[in-house]
What we know:
The complex is a heterodimer.
Chain A: E1 2-11, E2 21-29, E3 33-37, H1 44-51, E4 59-64, E5 67-68, H2 74-81, E6 82-85, H3 97-108, H4 115-125, H5 130-133, H6 142-154, E7 160-164, H7 172-189, E8 192-196, H8 200-203, E9 208-211
Parallel strand pairs in A: 3-8, 3-9, 6-7, 7-8
Antiparallel strand pairs in A: 1-2, 1-4, 4-5
Helix pairs in contact in A: 2-3, 3-4, 3-6, 4-6
Chain B: H1 2-13, H2 15-52, E1 55-61, H3 63-73, H4 82-87, H5 94-101, E2 106-119, E3 142-143, E4 153-158, H6 165-168, E5 172-177, E6 188-192, H7 193-198, E7 206-211, E8 214-229, E9 246-250, H8 251-261, E10 272-279, H9 285-294, E11 301-305, H10 307-349, H11 351-359, H12 364-419, E12 427-430, H13 437-442, E13 448-451, H14 460-487, H15 490-497
Parallel strand pairs in B: 4-9, 6-8, 12-13
Antiparallel strand pairs in B: 1-10, 1-11, 2-4, 2-7, 2-10, 3-10, 5-8, 6-9, 7-8
Helix pairs in contact in B: 1-12, 2-10, 2-12, 2-14, 10-12, 10-14, 11-15, 12-14
Amino acid sequence: MSVFKIEHVYYSYDSGKTPVLKDINYEFEKGKTYSIVGKSGSGKTTLLSLMSGLDKPKDGKILYNSTDISKIDEDVYRSRHVGVVFQSFNLLPHMTALENVILSIDVSGIKVKNKKEHALDMLNKVGLDEEKANRRVLMLSGGEQQRVAIARALSYNPDVVLADEPTGNLDSTTEKQIMDIFKDLAKQDNKCVIIVTHSPNVSNNVDNVYNLENN
Amino acid sequence: MYIFKNALKSITRSKGRNILIGIILTVIAISSCVALSIRNSANELVQSYKDTYDISATLSLNRQSLRSDFKNSQGGSITTAPQDFMANIPAIDVDSVNKYGNSDYVKSYYYTIQTSLNSSNIEEVTSTSNSSSQGSFGGNFVIKQIDKQSGDFRLIGYSSEESMTQFVNGSYKITSGQLFDFNSTENTCIITDELAEANSLSVGSEIKLVNPNNESETYTFKVVGIYSDSSENTEEFSMFSSAANQILTNANVLNTIVTNSKVNEDTKLNEQISSNYNLKNADVIDAFTNELTSKGLSSYYTVSTNLDNFNESVKPLENISSFATVLLIIVLLVGGVILTILNMINIRERKYEIGVLRAIGMKKNKVLGQFLVELLVVTIISIMLGSVIGSVISVPVANNMLKNEIESQQSSQNQIDQNFGRSGGSAVLQSAGGQNKIMSMFKIQSQVDYIDKINAVIDAKVVLQLILIGLGLTIVSGSISMIFISRYTPLKILSSRT
Lengths: 215, 498
């Protein structure tokens, strides 16, 4: 049973003259990793924006657990149902890694007994110890910041993790470590992990690959 | 709850920005605090002064009306002598004074009655170092009859202690014996030490007074007290030879003597009555005047009050209150504009933060709430700081402003006095709350009692007003934030950053 389904999605930036996305139909299941690939300008990031609820398709539907996401409050959708990992991390620089994760828990409104402990667990899961967790994010390396972004995306236990070029700014060693985290999430935690990438290393390490150039 | 925590984190970790906003807000708070405290204190002082100030009304001849009617009376073939015309003016007697005083608009009233008599057993004092004038009584004596003979001694009857202004202000002091009883019907009196010395009189001595129009009409007065007169020699006009020849008694006794003399038109004593009505407040002046007219007060009389004196007294305070209001408006306008611009810059600088918060699902109103809480916390701290600094500087600032205002008023009054050839310096300074009621009552024609001190305190009202101002500014600048935050979409913010 698919957790995420894209049906006949169209999108264009200029009132439909030159569609970026045209009749996209993809299905995603829990426990699997997916990559969406394509050359620059093919609409990878646009598709991820639509899937994360940051933008709306001009036509077609995106279904989350069989519910059209346009029917779900976009803030609730983003804060509880999908976890988004951005290429440029998008962390709050005046906060520590731990505070960034706790903030995400607070925004989601989920009930957690000990937020700090839960956030530390998330950070440990992606390989960050307590010392690093208490550093301001600007004092962390790019790889560590990306781990914080993943921990933040996982903090409220969403079914789907969306990642936009998560290894785009990282070296190959770190890229592999990050990919291992994503694979573990799918296999051990039964998450649906969807990665937008143009990296062959990433594509070769996922269960399914959707190529936008084929549309 | 996390909004508050997040806001506090943002404040403590963006010190530079918040200190800048805090400084501007503190300056606004200090200025507003000073302006508000001065304005409120000045207004309260004016109100308090208004509540406690005795609005004093007196009756005097309406010269304009007299002149006009006299002119009209000369128009026909029959001409009237001015004395005859004046003699026909309806008199105000003690009964009328009591009738007028029995009013809902009157707090208290008193009167003084005067006449002159001769004496068969004492001699008048012909030369004296002190010569207190009749004018210093301040009342507007209404001369009932002016064509009778004058005696050597001035007999003055007082209705109450309040009417004995020279004793109240300390010009006269009992040196031996005691004051007569105001309710007594016995002929008791007090005399000046000069008169006592000149005639070897002492407490217990008797004075025989004679109606100058009827030598068979005599009255024996017992001296119950002797007083000294320390008033300055003013050399003003007096129909009597010397203030030393005054004999003071109560109004009942003197009224009885005057009434007795009325048995025969030829023996009637000259009678002068001065009445003073302390009104409840300035707002009842017109109603009181109308009531007197309805009670039969002739149109030849006019009701004069010390309202001008009151208005003059509070004018510097009212000017300062107006200045403080203008200052407050300017501070709020300029401060509001600066704060709004700063807030706009702040929002633009934090666009990325807004984008991230919105991207992780924080609702617009919560993002706005966080920004408002930040601004509110800085505002409250600034208001507290501003209140403390404002409370320290508002008193000297207020008093300095008042001093300058009084000097300006005095200078302008002195200039007017000089223009009229009078010597200047007619102002009396007094502290707030210490209204010199009696003095002000009896110097209404010549002196202005300026209030020269304001206790510009920061009370709960000022703090509440400051908080409201802070909230107002926060809401105004917050609404600008709301517009910006509503316009921003997380996708646009984050993609522009990328």
